[in-house]
Amino acid sequence: MIEYLLLATLPSFSCIQDEPAELLRMRDGRILVCDILDHNIDGLSVLSLRNGGRFDLTWSDLFPGEADRMRSELGYKLDVVVPEVPADRLLLVNSQVLVGRIVGRDNENIHLRTFESTSIIPRSRLAAPPEPVMVPAPEVLTPEQFYQERVSSVDSSDPLALLAFALELQFVFSLDRALEVLDQAAVLATEDSSLPARIQNMRRSVSLTLENRVQAEALESIRHQINRKRFAAAEEMLVTFGEENPDSPLRVEYQDLMDRFEVQRVSAMEDFLARNWYGRTVAIVKKRALERDASVSELQTWSETELPQLVRHELLADLQVMKADIQTEDIEELWAQRISHGAKRHQAGYGVGSWILGEDRARDGLDVKEDTADDGKSEQLKALEERAKRYLDNLDRARRQSTGDDEETPEDWWRRAGANSRFQWLMAYYAENSGDYELTHVSFTDCATCAGSGVISSIELGNQGGKTRKKQCPTCHTIGIRRSITFR
Fold this sequence. Notes:
15 helices, 4 domains
């Protein structure tokens, strides 16, 4: 629960005539030119200098940023305490994330408790070892569980510590316990400090919540949905609450949820994409890499065009839990923010199939080319020319294969390569050419067969002595290297 705390004992006062007029921006965008007559923890009273009318305003009547400014200037502060507790995060093979407390484990299963429910998770479903994390308490603990866990660590002789603890309890909706702790703090608070007023202000807020418990529980249910990243359901509940309770005594808390909702949702969606994009792509690419008889040229086109759309379509279904009307186009802007969410770097390599790219593309980033002038061609035209070149190269390879002039085609290599090599090649090609990822590093290793020379040398002995003969390396096809990339 959100609480407005009075940081100093400030009596209400009348405006002094010599003070300059205030310009207050209202929530609907209007500007109010006024003098401040009165203020307290709930809002302020002002005198309009345009028509002489007196208005009693709550903080929620002001524009959010304006309300924060005025609370700061008048000696009030919005303290939002988000108590965090240790938990365990489990990433499953289907990219689902579970958060709770591990309360038991054996060789086959992990026992994960969230609130009062315990789930048994087979270890075979884990995509990575359990990760210890800190999460908001309402995500994993009931109000009473939080109280029992935290109470022993609070200094019961320090009224300020008790006040902070009461605020945490209010946030996790342990309201009866919060009143108990406030009573303890009130007994210890000295009259010559600001604590009695702060305790009284908080007690009034908690009591107001208890008096309107049905509405408070509705708001708490909305917070619970937000904590579980179910923003679409939370949005419907917010709309319903506003329609059913237009004059709610808890309107300040309701408006605070509304003000922060969209920012929280966008951040959650960006974080979801940063954590799940790669996993979704891997699942699709692994399945396609099992097709031994596929055409490499078709796979390249698929990686650049169809695969990006398949990934977006899968992610869209998950994001609809957060935003019901989200469209594929909306994902582009969200995905662009992945760097700010700590997007991980991934690696993939073309291996011994690097030669399929052609010498220029396989060695791009290794050789320094002298001619770097801009040819004036658009990116679309360059892409079209590249696809045409691939098509003609494939026709030429097919012709040479039919006449016995060429020993291996890209399709030959694809059929002979192992499943992991095919997956790595396809993943690298997608990451480098689809535009979905940012290339951060390119690395090269010499071909193990020819030591990077691109040719195999041999000596033929005859009557006139030895002769050195060179032929194309059968592994790298004169490319001489294996290409690997790092991307995010």
